[in-house]
């Protein structure tokens, strides 16, 4: 039960698979060596999807990948079926007015695969951003991952009301936290300013 | 004799007249007794609005035991209650509900604003969804400052409210 | 904009047999939230939780404050578990600011965090007792948690809102003679909570009210992404203190309590077993803690970050895995702070568990989900 019984499991997995990419990682990374197991996860994704996914970062226990909104559903399906991540921890929307885009970040974890218990996979995708948003009717749309990861249901509802990103295919795109009569901009957009600040 | 006087048509009028008579009768002599009764059976509504409800719960715990001062544990029906302890932040979603709860309670009713958020908005002064104090929603009798107030502070606020009720005119609400 | 967003709760068409009930926000069987249930006779056929009554926009406010001044308001979602709710933010801020934490501070954090877990769970247990009409179970935990609140008051000076964890360590060192007092109180506390079995957990009335109500299977617990005691009561062995240890949990021996049944009874029992585990952890931490040393890396009032970065940190709080995602653009204020809170994650299980239950079982199922509405709303 203690932590030392868990660590070998994490170390055991990388032995078999990421042996080929390991020297490659050493070769291209000059400042520091990437953690092998996490590198293995990102390599599997790159192998499958090629340049459709960009590896954002590979850190200890964390892998970040970015993909376009056309591919996010396929990537998520691959992550669930072949990499065995089984639930989403959170759905976060981040507004980037400089890029004119809104990023939606899914943090995925796994309960069933013991070697993935420490890992969090960050799946990020971006939707176009409109300066005069009409939530649900403008181009700020993304495919919903609710049929892949059931646990994103409330998270996507929250992102919809907080940033105005409509999720196509979500069965229940309604308000969740804000008052019913909220008629202002979605509050977590950067152009929604708190008064007096 | 009473049977002849009261018919179904004028029953309401008759009760109203009786009320007028009672109101005059209890003005001074019974006012004290009525207030005494109100002071020692304050029933708070079970409306938790934010995190101060933790300290409100602690106030009814064995160590502080607010019940010995006549504040009864908050698990009664709305129609029996006469005290609203606004336990913290009032958001824009909660404010109409708070007003609805207050309007449904029978007179007389008293309000304690507990915590900095209920008084001025407190820590959430610049939040987009928080009201700057509840004065705009319901009238407040006693302000209990703190973030959150300790249970002792809440008890002191309750005692202040009892002092206030003692000096109120009982007739006003009969 | 308003016509596309249906106001609040536009419920589906109902036929005449079915009655819609609003439970909350003013209801003795509900917290700071509304649950819209549709009942057919006595059975719930549809359930629609409506949180957001305490949505205070913490995440937006965090964008206007620097890494130090964010501390007091980010602990407010769960003031009786304030150390744990701050923990992931503080860990994340330390990585972004590039600060090292002294060894003793890590142990102090573990002790405070476990004390807070007990304080939270005792309050939760008290409310669970009163929800089921068990007044003794309100009075006993509500009284006993004051012991630990006294300890935390000695450490931080406040009863519940400690703001004790800050980037760089903890605010103050432990007071003199704290170890002895803490050990004595924790030992007594553990003896006390063991007595709850006789009055609450072995009580035939409680068992008949909570056994086989709201059964969450292992598959569904994983599918809904539940966490903490809800997950462990459904037979999934997952505790971040063991699986992904942070700070000094690696050096401590932590046992995970797992029950298989997945009903309300199991969900109400796991936090109680966890409290005993917390007592063990506190004793271990007191033993292994360096006896002296610094507890805080001094920071400037407006600390500079190392540069643009994203951090996602998780800790095991009283309700389950609590994550904090911080996006920094190199300024002194965070660009975006997102709290991935366990209550919000467990909320998804609620409508699925309540459908098919009797209305009278609603409080026992609802509160057994270890749900704190203020946290879910943020």
From TrEMBL, chain B:
Cellular component terms per the entry's GO annotation: respiratory chain complex I
EC number: 1.6.5.3
Domain NADH:ubiquinone oxidoreductase-like 20kDa subunit as annotated: residue spans: 51-159
Gene Ontology MF: a single term: oxidoreductase activity
A Pfam cross-reference name: Oxidored_q6
GO BP annotations, alphabetical order: aerobic respiration; electron transport coupled proton transport
Cross-referenced SUPFAM superfamilies: HydA/Nqo6-like
Protein keywords: 4Fe-4S, Iron, Iron-sulfur, Metal-binding, NAD, Oxidoreductase, Translocase, Transport
Gene3D superfamilies membership: 3.40.50.12280
Family: Belongs to the complex I 20 kDa subunit family.
PANTHER family on file: NADH DEHYDROGENASE, NADH DEHYDROGENASE [UBIQUINONE] IRON-SULFUR PROTEIN 7, MITOCHONDRIAL
Protein's name according to its UniProt entry: NADH-quinone oxidoreductase subunit B 2 protein
Organism of derivation: Marine Group I thaumarchaeote SCGC AAA799-N04
Gene (UniProt): nuoB2
């Amino acid at each position: 039960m203690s932590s030392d019984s868990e660590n070998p499991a994490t170390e055991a997995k990388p032995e078999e698979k990421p042996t080929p990419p390991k020297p490659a990682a050493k070769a291209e990374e000059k400042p520091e060596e990437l953690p092998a197991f996490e590198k293995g996860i990102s390599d599997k994704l790159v192998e499958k999807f090629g340049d459709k996914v960009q590896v954002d970062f590979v850190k200890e226990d964390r892998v970040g990948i970015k993909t376009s909104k056309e591919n996010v559903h396929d990537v998520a399906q691959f992550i669930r079926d072949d990499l065995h991540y089984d639930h989403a921890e959170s759905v976060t929307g981040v507004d980037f007015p400089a890029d004119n885009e809104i990023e939606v970040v899914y943090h995925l974890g796994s309960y069933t695969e013991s070697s993935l218990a420490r890992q969090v996979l960050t799946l990020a995708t971006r939707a176009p951003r409109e300066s005069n948003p009409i939530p649900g009717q403008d181009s700020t749309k993304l495919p919903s991952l609710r049929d892949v990861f059931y646990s994103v249901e409330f998270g996507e509802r929250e992102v919809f009301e907080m940033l105005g990103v409509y999720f196509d295919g979500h069965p229940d795109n309604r308000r969740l936290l804000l008052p019913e009569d909220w008629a202002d901009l979605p509050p977590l957009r950067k152009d929604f300013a708190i008064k007096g600040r | 004799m009473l049977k002849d006087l009261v018919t179904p048509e004028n029953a309401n009028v008759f009760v109203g007249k009786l009320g007028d008579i009672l109101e005059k009768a209890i003005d001074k002599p019974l006012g004290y007794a009525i207030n005494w009764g109100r002071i020692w059976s304050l029933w708070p509504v079970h409306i938790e609005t934010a995190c101060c409800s933790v300290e409100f719960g602690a106030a009814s715990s064995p160590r502080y035991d607010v019940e010995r001062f006549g504040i009864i544990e908050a698990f009664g029906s709305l129609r029996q209650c006469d005290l609203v302890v606004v336990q913290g932040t009032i958001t824009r979603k909660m404010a109409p509900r708070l007003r609805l709860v207050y309007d449904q309670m029978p007179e007389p009713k008293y309000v304690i604003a507990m915590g900095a958020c209920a008084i001025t908005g407190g820590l959430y002064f610049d939040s987009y969804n928080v009201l700057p104090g509840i004065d705009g929603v319901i009238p407040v009798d006693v302000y209990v400052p703190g973030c959150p107030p300790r249970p002792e502070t809440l008890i002191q606020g309750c005692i202040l409210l009892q002092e206030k009720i003692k000096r109120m005119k009982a007739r006003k609400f009969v | 904009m308003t016509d596309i967003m249906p106001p609040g709760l536009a419920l589906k068409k109902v036929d005449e047999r079915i009655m819609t009930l609003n439970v909350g926000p003013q209801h003795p069987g509900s917290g700071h939230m509304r649950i819209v249930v549709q009942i057919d006779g006595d059975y719930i056929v549809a359930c629609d939780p409506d949180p957001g009554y305490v949505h205070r926009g913490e995440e937006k406010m965090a964008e206007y404050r620097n890494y130090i001044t964010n501390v007091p308001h980010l602990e407010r979602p769960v003031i009786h578990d304030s150390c744990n709710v701050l923990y992931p933010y503080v860990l994340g801020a330390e990585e972004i600011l590039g600060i090292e934490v002294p060894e003793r501070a890590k142990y102090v954090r573990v002790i405070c965090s476990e004390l807070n877990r007990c304080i939270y769970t005792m309050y939760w247990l008290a409310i669970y007792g009163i929800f089921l009409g068990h007044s003794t179970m309100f009075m006993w935990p509500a009284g006993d948690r004051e012991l630990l609140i006294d300890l935390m008051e000695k450490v931080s000076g406040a009863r519940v809102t400690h703001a004790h964890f800050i980037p760089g360590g903890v605010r103050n060192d432990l007071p003199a003679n704290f170890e002895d007092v803490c050990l004595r109180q924790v030992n007594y506390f553990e003896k006390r909570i063991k007595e709850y079995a006789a009055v609450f957990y072995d009580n035939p009335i409680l068992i008949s009210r909570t056994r086989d109500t709201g059964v969450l299977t292992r598959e569904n617990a994983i599918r809904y992404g539940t966490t903490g005691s809800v997950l462990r009561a459904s037979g999934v062995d997952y505790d971040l203190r063991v699986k992904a240890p942070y700070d000094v949990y690696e050096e401590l021996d932590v046992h995970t309590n797992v029950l298989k049944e997945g009903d309300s009874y199991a969900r109400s029992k796991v936090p109680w077993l966890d409290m005993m585990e917390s007592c063990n952890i506190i004793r271990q931490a007191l033993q292994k803690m360096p006896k002296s040393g610094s507890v805080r890396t001094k920071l400037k009032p407006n600390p500079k970050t190392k540069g643009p970065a994203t951090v996602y940190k998780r800790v095991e709080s009283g309700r389950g895995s609590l994550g904090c995602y911080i996006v920094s653009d190199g300024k002194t204020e965070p660009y975006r702070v997102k709290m991935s809170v366990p209550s919000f994650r467990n909320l998804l299980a609620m409508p699925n568990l309540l459908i098919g239950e009797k209305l009278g079982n609603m409080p026992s199922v609802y509160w057994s989900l270890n749900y704190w509405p203020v946290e879910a709303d943020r």
